[in-house]
Design brief:
Elements (H helix, E strand, L loop, with lengths): L3 H11 L3 E3 L5 E2 L5 E2 L1 E3 L8 H18 L5 E5 L4 H11 L2 E5 L12 E2 L7 E9 L3 H12 L3 E10 L3 H9 L4 E6 H10 L8 H9 L6
Parallel strand pairs: 5-6, 5-8, 8-9, 9-10
Antiparallel strand pairs: 1-4, 2-3, 6-7
Length: about 210
Amino acid sequence: MVNTEAKIAKILLETSAIKLSPDNPFKWSSGWNSPIYCDNRTVLSFAEHRKEIKQMLSAKIQAEFAGVDTIVGVATAGIAMGALIADELGLSYAYCRPEPKAHGLKRQLEGRVDADAKIVLLEDLISTGGSSLKVVDYMRAEGYTILGMAAIFTYGFDIADQNFQNANCKYVTLGNYATMIDQAVASGYVKSEYLDRLAEWRKNPAEWG
């Protein structure tokens, strides 16, 4: 079988969807300092890589979520890949915001979702799970059945695992932080002497830097 974790790491690094900068950290919207910035939307610009991720994530969803008949992308980063995967699997599709739109019809869910749909939510990445789980909460409050969530990448934070466990929501990803760092070192993208600092960040991102 193809090692999807290593393959995803290679794709994200080759397309510059992942940027590593231990000496000059990025500032996240949460206020955290981070040696890594991940924007998986970059992959959409590369046809072959986009196709590979679509196929791998579609296969993962089929294997992990029996009976899925609807894909719902989480706005905004999950919208495009969610639509591609729904098309690959021949499933119904919609997308949902963590909060209602502030103008127009003020919708939170865009598209038609059958009342008895069996839904897998699609994200680009999982950090703490906070915004993703807002969509889970909303969809459940509306009476929908959520089988779980799938994403391209996870940072592997313990808080994310705990948040999804507390919400009783299964999630699966293709790639993860640990494998991506191994690939980055092997390819010379980042120096091996940074490994300890990168590991420290993942253990305590709120206070790192």
